[in-house]
Amino acid sequence: MSGLTDVRRFAADSVWRGTTITAGWLLLLFVGAYLITPASLLPLVMTDLEITESTAAALVSMPQVAATVVGIPVGIYLDRVETRVTVPVAAAVLFIGSTGDWLAASRGTVSLLIASRLFAGAGMFVLWVTCINIAASTFPPTRRATATSVIISGYPAGYALGHLGAPRVAALVGWPGVFPVFGVAVVMMSFGFYVAVGRVPRFHSSTDPMTLLEFKKVIRNRNVWAVLLVTVLGYSLYMVFNSWMPTYITRRFGVSLADSGTFVALFPTVGILTRPIGGWLSDAVLDQRRRPVFAASFVGATVLAVAMFYSTTIAVLVPILVLAGAFVQLQIGLMYQSIQEFVDPRAAGTAVSLASVAGWLGSFVAPVVAGELVAITGTYSILFVFAVGLGLSGGLAVWQMAESGTSTVPA
Questions:
Q1: pLDDT in tens, 266-316
Q2: CA–CA gap between residue 332 and residue 153 (Å, rounded)
């Protein structure tokens, strides 16, 4: 009877593991849709608020600014508590921020809109790190890169949802009303995720909190810094396309904002497949090696950015854009697993938070720099030159970094 009980328990655990990943995926879906909403509506935002391209791009990235500020303290805190309990609270913070976005945008108050986006960013960051930590602790080490890559693939799906849905929702409720629509969805999914996590067993490598000495070891670890550099460059490349391609396609080819949003939605959407594929390739095909996937991601994206620069028709540009999205996102997911493999298990949450801060920093800075370059040069073609520079820098960084998958002992 005990054998039968074990089989049933294993089957039940497998169901709840799948439910947890699914709920986390849907949670990140709506978080991503909220975050990218201003990018999907940039022409409307710039016209109604009478702001420049760089200011509009900054609105997209304000949540990432909040992440860079709260990231390290949040990571240390999450290493010391049961992360499940933070999910509904963080979702409520994001919802309050989204409501503030609606009020500020309706009144045309740019400063309040910036503040509310910053506030929502704190909740967004906690939800992101918690989903990654739970995915990693729900599966054994040989499947963690795959599990992490699967759950965070909800985020590009959210970008796609934002690009595709925001212009259409805005047509019904006005563009300021799009923010709380996604905010409500985040709150609803947070409760589903909270329930699912409470039913699944977890793999805990350590129950002891991280000490100050261990934190110093993390900060002084050169391998950690190498992963952080790769993460900054990878996310910068990703966000240059996500934030500016709808506007580029509209201005370059004269299509409507809704149609350009549909085309660009394909860029993050392909990550639903390629992020898990990147994790699976690393775990199953490359024997847990990470560097080959990082290298392929940067090289492929760089070559395709050059191809987009020379594209003269939208029929040529869109397929290349989709391929670029596939290559860029192969490495996203591995970043968070790779950095954990360089530190003590007790510092896993801190390591994930550091990588997340690096990613958000790149996500914030790159669109703003791109906006300034467009303003200075007067041409959107400069976006592709910038993307090529990021891709080449990323390839060089990967060339210099160590292989995390060959050893789980901190350097």
A1: 887 788 889 889 888 888 888 888 899 999 999 999 999 999 888 888 888
A2: 9
